[in-house]
Amino acid sequence: MLDLDERVIDRAGLFVHLTAAPPVIRRRLLDRDGEAAGLEEVTALVTAYQRVFSTLADYTKVLTLDTTAGELPSAG
Question: Can you give the chain as a three-state secondary structure string?
């Protein structure tokens, strides 16, 4: 991740962090292929990703989009 972070910073890029509420992520995983970690584990992973992207935001641009509602904002 540190190598990727350095490359993004060097190129004046940004990270796009797609997230959703843990129950929504778990449901999507189950719908995709019938398997998913338990809700506690998914919640821990979401929390860990939030920490990572929060730290990255101190050094480079991070755009976080919450996809819980299933709709992304329009580009225009």
Answer: CHHHHHHHHHCCCEEEEEECCHHHHHHHHHHHHCCCCCHHHHHHHHHHHHHHHHHHCCCCEEEEEECCCCCCCCCC
The CA distance from 33 to 56, in Å, is 31
Q: How far apart are the first and last CA of the chain?
A: 31
Region for residue 27 given its phi and psi (left: phi exceeds 0; alpha: psi -120 to 50; beta: otherwise): alpha
Q: Look at the pTM and tell me if it is higher than 0.85.
A: no
Render pLDDT for 19-54 as a digit per residue (tens, 0 to 9).
Answer: 999 999 999 999 999 999 999 999 999 999 999 999
